[in-house]
User: Fold this.
Amino acid sequence: MIFLWIIAVIVVILGLSAFMGAPYVPSHARQVRRAFTDLRPLTPRDVVVDLGSGDGIVLRQAIDHGAKRAIGYEINPLLVWISRIVSLRYRGSIQIQTANMWHIDPPEGVTIIYVFGVGRDMKRLAALFDRWAAQTGRDLECLIYGHALPGREPAREEGAHRLYRFTALHQSEAQV
Ligand SMILES: C[S@@+](CC[C@H](N)C(=O)[O-])C[C@H]1O[C@@H](n2cnc3c(N)ncnc32)[C@H](O)[C@@H]1O
Assistant:
Protein backbone atom coordinates (compact mmCIF):
# COMPACT_ATOMS: atom_id res chain seq x y z
CA MET A 1 0.00 0.00 0.00
CA ILE A 2 2.76 2.43 0.99
CA PHE A 3 4.43 1.61 -2.33
CA LEU A 4 1.30 2.75 -4.22
CA TRP A 5 1.24 6.00 -2.23
CA ILE A 6 4.87 6.69 -3.10
CA ILE A 7 4.16 6.09 -6.80
CA ALA A 8 1.08 8.35 -6.62
CA VAL A 9 3.07 11.18 -4.97
CA ILE A 10 5.82 10.91 -7.62
CA VAL A 11 3.26 10.95 -10.45
CA VAL A 12 1.52 14.02 -8.97
CA ILE A 13 4.82 15.89 -8.47
CA LEU A 14 6.00 15.14 -12.03
CA GLY A 15 2.56 16.01 -13.46
CA LEU A 16 2.44 19.32 -11.59
CA SER A 17 5.93 20.27 -12.82
CA ALA A 18 4.96 19.54 -16.42
CA PHE A 19 1.80 21.62 -15.97
CA MET A 20 3.75 24.58 -14.48
CA GLY A 21 6.38 24.65 -17.23
CA ALA A 22 8.78 22.47 -19.18
CA PRO A 23 8.53 18.75 -18.36
CA TYR A 24 11.73 17.04 -17.24
CA VAL A 25 13.95 16.22 -20.23
CA PRO A 26 17.69 16.69 -19.70
CA SER A 27 19.85 18.70 -22.13
CA HIS A 28 22.15 16.59 -24.24
CA ALA A 29 25.48 16.44 -22.34
CA ARG A 30 27.65 16.65 -25.48
CA GLN A 31 25.74 19.71 -26.71
CA VAL A 32 26.03 21.44 -23.32
CA ARG A 33 29.78 20.77 -23.39
CA ARG A 34 30.01 22.42 -26.81
CA ALA A 35 27.92 25.37 -25.65
CA PHE A 36 30.29 25.97 -22.70
CA THR A 37 33.47 25.56 -24.78
CA ASP A 38 32.74 26.78 -28.35
CA LEU A 39 29.63 28.95 -28.15
CA ARG A 40 30.32 30.77 -24.88
CA PRO A 41 33.55 29.56 -23.27
CA LEU A 42 33.25 29.79 -19.50
CA THR A 43 35.74 31.65 -17.31
CA PRO A 44 36.44 31.59 -13.55
CA ARG A 45 34.43 34.83 -13.29
CA ASP A 46 31.22 33.19 -14.50
CA VAL A 47 28.23 32.44 -12.33
CA VAL A 48 25.83 30.21 -14.29
CA VAL A 49 22.15 29.96 -13.40
CA ASP A 50 19.97 27.14 -14.76
CA LEU A 51 16.26 27.95 -14.65
CA GLY A 52 14.53 24.59 -14.25
CA SER A 53 17.71 22.68 -13.39
CA GLY A 54 16.31 19.12 -13.61
CA ASP A 55 18.93 16.56 -12.55
CA GLY A 56 21.67 19.25 -12.45
CA ILE A 57 23.59 18.14 -15.56
CA VAL A 58 24.02 21.73 -16.78
CA LEU A 59 25.30 22.88 -13.38
CA ARG A 60 27.90 20.12 -13.21
CA GLN A 61 29.03 20.81 -16.79
CA ALA A 62 29.32 24.52 -15.98
CA ILE A 63 31.72 23.82 -13.09
CA ASP A 64 33.63 21.20 -15.10
CA HIS A 65 34.15 23.82 -17.83
CA GLY A 66 35.49 26.57 -15.59
CA ALA A 67 32.60 28.51 -14.03
CA LYS A 68 33.16 29.85 -10.52
CA ARG A 69 29.67 28.94 -9.31
CA ALA A 70 26.47 27.35 -10.65
CA ILE A 71 22.99 27.83 -9.22
CA GLY A 72 19.92 25.79 -10.14
CA TYR A 73 16.27 26.60 -9.53
CA GLU A 74 13.91 23.65 -9.86
CA ILE A 75 10.19 23.46 -9.11
CA ASN A 76 10.09 19.68 -8.63
CA PRO A 77 11.29 18.83 -5.09
CA LEU A 78 12.07 15.25 -6.10
CA LEU A 79 14.48 16.45 -8.80
CA VAL A 80 15.99 18.95 -6.37
CA TRP A 81 16.96 16.13 -4.01
CA ILE A 82 18.15 13.83 -6.78
CA SER A 83 20.28 16.59 -8.30
CA ARG A 84 21.72 17.53 -4.89
CA ILE A 85 22.73 13.92 -4.30
CA VAL A 86 24.33 13.40 -7.72
CA SER A 87 26.13 16.76 -7.38
CA LEU A 88 27.54 16.02 -3.90
CA ARG A 89 31.15 16.08 -5.08
CA TYR A 90 30.59 19.67 -6.33
CA ARG A 91 29.64 20.85 -2.82
CA GLY A 92 30.62 24.50 -2.40
CA SER A 93 30.36 25.39 -6.08
CA ILE A 94 26.85 24.14 -6.91
CA GLN A 95 23.71 25.31 -5.15
CA ILE A 96 20.22 23.97 -5.98
CA GLN A 97 17.02 25.50 -4.64
CA THR A 98 13.38 24.50 -4.84
CA ALA A 99 11.78 27.50 -6.53
CA ASN A 100 9.44 28.65 -9.25
CA MET A 101 11.72 30.42 -11.74
CA TRP A 102 9.03 33.02 -12.55
CA HIS A 103 9.06 34.26 -8.96
CA ILE A 104 12.75 34.67 -8.17
CA ASP A 105 15.13 37.62 -8.30
CA PRO A 106 18.44 37.40 -10.18
CA PRO A 107 21.03 35.86 -7.85
CA GLU A 108 24.09 37.91 -6.85
CA GLY A 109 26.82 37.95 -9.52
CA VAL A 110 24.95 35.99 -12.23
CA THR A 111 26.66 36.27 -15.64
CA ILE A 112 25.00 33.50 -17.68
CA ILE A 113 21.44 32.21 -17.56
CA TYR A 114 20.75 28.79 -19.08
CA VAL A 115 17.26 27.61 -20.02
CA PHE A 116 15.91 24.54 -21.80
CA GLY A 117 13.34 26.49 -23.83
CA VAL A 118 9.76 25.41 -24.34
CA GLY A 119 7.68 27.14 -27.04
CA ARG A 120 4.91 28.46 -24.83
CA ASP A 121 7.39 30.12 -22.40
CA MET A 122 9.66 31.95 -24.85
CA LYS A 123 7.94 35.35 -24.85
CA ARG A 124 7.68 35.33 -21.07
CA LEU A 125 11.37 34.37 -20.79
CA ALA A 126 12.45 37.34 -22.93
CA ALA A 127 10.48 39.66 -20.62
CA LEU A 128 12.05 37.99 -17.55
CA PHE A 129 15.58 38.53 -18.92
CA ASP A 130 14.82 42.19 -19.72
CA ARG A 131 13.66 42.65 -16.13
CA TRP A 132 16.73 40.90 -14.68
CA ALA A 133 19.10 43.01 -16.82
CA ALA A 134 17.36 46.16 -15.56
CA GLN A 135 17.36 44.92 -11.95
CA THR A 136 21.07 43.99 -11.93
CA GLY A 137 22.06 47.02 -14.05
CA ARG A 138 24.45 44.68 -15.87
CA ASP A 139 24.55 42.91 -19.22
CA LEU A 140 23.37 39.29 -19.06
CA GLU A 141 24.07 36.46 -21.44
CA CYS A 142 21.37 33.85 -21.96
CA LEU A 143 21.98 30.41 -23.40
CA ILE A 144 18.78 28.88 -24.67
CA TYR A 145 18.50 25.23 -25.65
CA GLY A 146 15.81 24.39 -28.17
CA HIS A 147 13.43 27.17 -29.09
CA ALA A 148 14.32 30.72 -30.20
CA LEU A 149 13.27 33.88 -28.36
CA PRO A 150 10.62 35.68 -30.46
CA GLY A 151 11.68 39.09 -31.78
CA ARG A 152 15.28 38.75 -30.53
CA GLU A 153 18.35 38.16 -32.64
CA PRO A 154 20.81 35.63 -31.15
CA ALA A 155 24.42 36.85 -30.93
CA ARG A 156 25.63 33.34 -31.81
CA GLU A 157 24.31 29.83 -32.45
CA GLU A 158 25.79 26.36 -32.14
CA GLY A 159 23.70 23.24 -32.70
CA ALA A 160 20.49 23.56 -30.69
CA HIS A 161 21.89 26.35 -28.47
CA ARG A 162 21.43 30.08 -29.04
CA LEU A 163 23.28 32.82 -27.17
CA TYR A 164 21.39 36.06 -26.51
CA ARG A 165 22.63 39.24 -24.88
CA PHE A 166 20.37 41.37 -22.70
CA THR A 167 21.61 44.81 -21.75
CA ALA A 168 20.35 47.16 -19.08
CA LEU A 169 20.61 49.89 -21.79
CA HIS A 170 18.23 47.97 -24.08
CA GLN A 171 15.73 47.88 -21.20
CA SER A 172 15.87 51.64 -20.49
CA GLU A 173 15.55 52.36 -24.24
CA ALA A 174 12.48 50.12 -24.32
CA GLN A 175 10.89 52.17 -21.55
CA VAL A 176 11.39 55.60 -23.25
C1 LIG B 1 13.40 20.34 -19.97
S1 LIG B 1 13.91 20.13 -18.27
C2 LIG B 1 15.55 20.80 -18.34
C3 LIG B 1 16.44 20.37 -17.22
C4 LIG B 1 17.86 20.98 -17.26
N1 LIG B 1 17.82 22.42 -17.32
C5 LIG B 1 18.60 20.49 -18.47
O1 LIG B 1 18.74 21.27 -19.42
O2 LIG B 1 19.02 19.31 -18.47
C6 LIG B 1 12.97 21.48 -17.54
C7 LIG B 1 12.97 21.47 -16.02
O3 LIG B 1 12.33 22.68 -15.58
C8 LIG B 1 11.55 22.38 -14.43
N2 LIG B 1 10.53 23.43 -14.34
C9 LIG B 1 9.39 23.56 -15.08
N3 LIG B 1 8.74 24.69 -14.73
C10 LIG B 1 9.49 25.29 -13.77
C11 LIG B 1 9.33 26.50 -13.01
N4 LIG B 1 8.28 27.30 -13.20
N5 LIG B 1 10.29 26.83 -12.12
C12 LIG B 1 11.36 26.01 -11.93
N6 LIG B 1 11.56 24.86 -12.60
C13 LIG B 1 10.63 24.50 -13.52
C14 LIG B 1 10.99 20.98 -14.70
O4 LIG B 1 10.62 20.33 -13.52
C15 LIG B 1 12.19 20.33 -15.39
O5 LIG B 1 13.03 19.67 -14.49
